[in-house]
TrEMBL record:
Species in which this protein is naturally found: Polymorphospora rubra
SMART domains from the UniProt entry: HAMP, HATPase_c, HisKA
One GO CC annotation: plasma membrane
The name this protein goes by in its record: Signal transduction histidine-protein kinase/phosphatase MprB
Alphabetized GO MF terms: ATP binding; phosphoprotein phosphatase activity; phosphorelay sensor kinase activity
Subcellular location per the Swiss-Prot or TrEMBL entry: Cell membrane
Amino acid sequence: MRSRLSLLVAATTILVLVAFLVPLALLLRSVAQDRAVGAATAEMQGIVAAVGAADPDTLRLSAEQVAAASGQPVTIFLPDGSVLGTPTPRTPAVELAARGRSFTADGDGGHEIVVAVQGRPDGTAVVRTFVPDAELTRGVTRAWLVLAGLGATLVLLGLLVADRLARNLVRPIGELSEVSHRLARAELTARATPTGPPELREVAGALNHLAGRIQELLREEREQVADLSHRLRTPLTALRLEAESLADPSDAARITAGVDALERAVTGVITQARKRSDTPAPEGCEAAAVVRDRVNFWSVLAEDTGRAVALDLAPGPLPVGLSADDLAAALDALLGNVFAHTPDGTAFTVTLAARPGGGALLTVADDGPGLPADQVRRGESRGGSTGLGLDIARRAAQSSGGHLDLTASPTGGAQLTLTLGPPTHP
């Protein structure tokens, strides 16, 4: 923008200077020509007055003196054909002046001035002088150079002023851009300093107001989520007491484990809701241990519903750029979709493999009818759920630098692959 403003000012200045200096240069040339012609005509006036009465010898002497003083040829053509002064052949202009007409004509290399002198007994005499082009344009070149230098100086001054103005205009715009980028990086404390023209100050104030409003909305959202999550603790406590009162120890332990997992999820929601927006990325975790733990948890429900579970874990540790709670929530969302969208007895497979370049590939494939297409869209589902499960998994993958892919499994069911990136701070 700064260069464009400078180019605009330069183009405008040049156009104005051309419109002003070109006519002025032509006027200077015309003035120089008129000055040279006027000076030559004035030198001839003394001879013109003497031509009517002086004898030829006196006229010859006068013509030679004027020619010597002015440096220009002066010739007198008498009616009898005599030529006095500087020898010059009779030109068409002289022939025309002999008829009683005085004028100035453009000749080869200069201007020819002829003056008809009437009143002599023998007819009309003609006084002629010639002004060369060098005399007609004397001082014009220097004047043009001065004008060109003046124009160049004005253009440079215009560029200097335009650059200063553009810099004062662009600097606030750059600061606004930097603040907007910081806000995009979740630095909600970034604020712009209102500087520059009134319009830019107004934009800076609007951007600061927007940033403050975003902070307020996020604060309200965090508080609402935290309050909602906190309210869940009461029914969770009641559910735990009910589980502990069961007669069958295995049922009590299974339900208590489920309540513990739900309570951990609620605690994670509260922690996430109250977390500052500029906190560093979550630490990584060892994916194999988390996947094994969650598959074991879901295996109990799978056994109750007659589902065969296959777990394929790659050997060795598989660190990923995702916290254990987030990875567990993502896997729970994927397995929850299997139980929600496939009939009882449908087998499924969980595979965890190493990813080239670091990270891991987590795949959940089932033998069911396939996942509905609208289940991929957040908040929409024809399966009786909220439609947020896959979005949770997708956001978890994206936070680690990966993504979520939905394809068909080899048996015709749904296959969900979670690509997880490596830890950013191993």
